[in-house]
């Protein structure tokens, strides 16, 4: 928490209001400068004598954040005072610089259904590295409205480790997800328009895989019938919706290196097949130019900041199961060019998020991962050690001991990629000191450095021990390596993932999956990486298998080609791409006050 003293100055305007869980103070000084402060506790705002003294979290105008990074004002596109897009010309300018920053990937042990705090840890680590005198940036995905209003709630950090302006980031931000949805649905409209006007490409409507999208959880739209009402209303067929974050356009946006690459990838998107089994791609529907035009600004990274003023690039939001689940490649590249340490959060645990980062993102971007932080919680260790959901929040040293096997496997996984791991023990108030000590002792026995992280309660200072260990680990010269070669058969890639990372012994395929493998071979797309879609709640493909499962058989139910994104998706289990709302959705707690302030985001 930054203490700010402004003494003996005249204020032209002071306003005080509640904003997304924080107390807000806007100061407009007579010299023309404006400041924006946020505090978790309005009781800490104290006005004394002729000045103002307050314990406040300082949020700087975004132009100042850009100045500190060396981003020219001519290359900045402000969206108001607290957020901005970095013009694509900045990426071209930065491309002339050497990639000198170290890449730190934040992953985790297998989580509980409650989540273990990767986002909070990522933000806190970036702030802690800054406190150590390093130039640091955190790269995060943008939250989707579906989870914000559903179970998860806000996804911009928490406590004293947030990215700001938090309400804006959770609520549509700069419109990138809207642009992805518009581009995706334009392709869907052009496809149905082609069917309506004679279907010259001979598309078999039964093979159409390109559904509509919307950025909201709505289970009633998973399966729909369109084109009803008569001949002039289109061709009747079965359709459905997925959430926008699950769109292949989102994955394309987050893996494209520039506008030319964006258009190439959009053009390769397969929407269905002809009567004789040939793929129909977006470029055949003449959709690429218009889609790219919609996505022009969406490809530009978004600049924001943490609650302590550390730069944050928040860009893209692909699903962590059916896609690669991390911030855009262009934002990561920019972060590496402008910082000493670029902290990137990967989706889910090591066998999902870290695997996809190394095998897909780093491979496409030509990146090296210098260190990986494995977020572990005593709660997750209890859970994987046999504690029930009802007792998982209560001290249980014996369950913690048993749960160490899960953490041990994730340490092994990180080392499998040739990366030095550091364990972040994200501490909760319900953690007993004995339990924390057990985790520290286990990490020491594995030859892994660990640190207790209290960034939720303390912000950057609570992450300094972790940052020190990350600096040390990243200086050891990690050379990250993919798990498999691209030229390997699809089955060999999946087998490597299952055996080396999950701990399984065998892979089986349904009849449909075998047919899908044949199609991938016929299409000549065997040399793409594999993106496995499975439960994040187990190392296996069965969410009920907790701890460290061994000698199990994983079942591949079907495969899909994401030729635009550049990977093949292997589905293990029932992965939902259009979530539903829970019985008590987070939307019920969110409100807009009469003063225009969003509140209730968790």
Principal-axis shape equals: globular
Please report the first level of CATH classification, the CATH class of the largest domain.
Answer: Alpha Beta
CATH topology of the largest domain: Rossmann fold
The chain-level structural class is alpha/beta
* Strand residue content: 15-25%
Report the span from N to C terminus.
Answer: 20 Å
Instruction: Specify Rg, calculated over alpha carbons.
Output: 24 Å
What are the low-pLDDT stretches, counting only 5+ consecutive residues below 50?
1-57
Number of H/I helices: 18
Mean pLDDT: 88
Number of strands: 31
Give the % helix.
Answer: 25-40%
Gross CATH architecture of the largest domain: 3-Layer(aba) Sandwich
Number of structural units classed as domains: 4
CATH homolog superfamily of the largest domain? P-loop containing nucleotide triphosphate hydrolases
How can the largest sheet be summarized?
A: 12 strands, mixed
Q: What's the short version?
A:
With 602 residues, this protein is an alpha/beta fold. The model is unreliable at 1-57 (pLDDT under 50).
């Amino acid at each position: 928490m930054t203490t700010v003293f402004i003494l003996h100055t005249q204020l032209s305007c002071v306003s005080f209001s509640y904003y997304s869980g924080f107390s807000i103070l806007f100061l407009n000084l007579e010299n023309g400068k404006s400041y924006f402060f946020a505090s978790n506790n309005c009781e800490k705002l104290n006005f004394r004598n002729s000045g103002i003294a307050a314990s406040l979290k300082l949020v700087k105008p975004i132009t100042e954040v850009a100045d500190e990074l060396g981003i020219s004002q001519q290359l900045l596109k402000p969206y108001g005072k607290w957020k901005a897009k970095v013009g694509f010309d900045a990426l071209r300018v930065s491309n002339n610089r050497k990639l000198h920053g170290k890449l730190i990937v934040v992953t985790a042990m297998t989580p509980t259904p409650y989540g273990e705090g990767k986002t909070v840890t990522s933000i806190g680590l970036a702030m802690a590295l800054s406190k150590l005198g390093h130039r640091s940036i955190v790269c995060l995905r943008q939250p989707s409205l579906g989870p914000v209003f559903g179970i998860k709630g806000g996804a911009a950090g928490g406590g004293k480790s947030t990215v700001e302006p938090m309400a804006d980031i959770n609520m549509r931000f700069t419109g990138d997800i809207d642009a992805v949805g518009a581009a995706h649905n334009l392709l869907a409209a052009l496809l149905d328009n082609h069917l309506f006007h004679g279907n010259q490409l001979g598309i078999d409507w039964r093979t159409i895989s390109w559904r509509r999208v919307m950025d909201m959880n709505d289970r009633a739209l998973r399966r729909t019938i369109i084109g009803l009402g008569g001949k002039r209303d289109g061709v009747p067929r079965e359709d459905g919706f997925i959430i926008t974050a699950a769109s292949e356009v989102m994955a394309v946006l987050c893996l494209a290196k520039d506008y030319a690459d964006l258009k190439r990838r959009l053009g390769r998107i397969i929407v269905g097949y002809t009567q004789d089994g040939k793929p129909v791609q977006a470029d055949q529907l003449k959709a690429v130019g218009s889609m790219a035009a919609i996505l022009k600004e969406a490809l530009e990274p978004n600049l924001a900041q943490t609650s302590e003023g550390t730069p944050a690039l928040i860009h893209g939001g692909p699903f962590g199961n059916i896609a690669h689940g991390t911030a855009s490649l262009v934002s990561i590249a920019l972060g590496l060019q402008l910082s000493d340490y670029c902290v990137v959060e990967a989706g889910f645990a090591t066998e999902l998020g870290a695997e996809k980062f190394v095998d897909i993102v780093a491979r496409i971007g030509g990146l090296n991962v210098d260190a990986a932080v494995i977020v572990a919680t005593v709660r997750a260790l209890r859970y994987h050690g046999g504690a029930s959901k009802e007792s998982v929040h209560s001290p249980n040293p014996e369950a913690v001991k048993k749960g160490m096997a899960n953490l041990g496997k994730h340490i092994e996984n990180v080392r499998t990629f040739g990366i030095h791991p550091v364990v972040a023990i994200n501490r909760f108030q319900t953690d007993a000191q004995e339990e924390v000590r057990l985790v520290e002792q286990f990490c020491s026995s594995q030859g892994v450095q660990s640190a207790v992280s209290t960034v939720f309660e303390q912000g950057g200072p609570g992450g300094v021990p972790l940052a020190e260990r990350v600096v040390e680990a990243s200086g050891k010269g990690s050379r990250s390596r993919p798990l498999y070669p691209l030229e390997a058969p699809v089955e060999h890639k999946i087998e490597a993932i299952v055996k080396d990372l999950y701990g399984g012994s065998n892979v089986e395929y349904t009849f449909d999956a075998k047919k899908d493998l044949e199609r991938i071979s016929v299409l000549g797309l065997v040399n793409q990486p594999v993106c496995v879609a499975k439960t994040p709640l187990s190392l296996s493909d069965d969410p009920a298998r907790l701890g460290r499962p061994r000698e199990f058989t994983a079942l591949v139910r079907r495969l899909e080609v994401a030729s635009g994104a550049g990977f093949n998706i292997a589905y293990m289990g029932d992965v939902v791409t259009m979530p539903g709302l829970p019985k008590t959705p987070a939307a019920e707690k969110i409100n807009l006050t009469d003063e225009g302030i969003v509140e209730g985001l968790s």
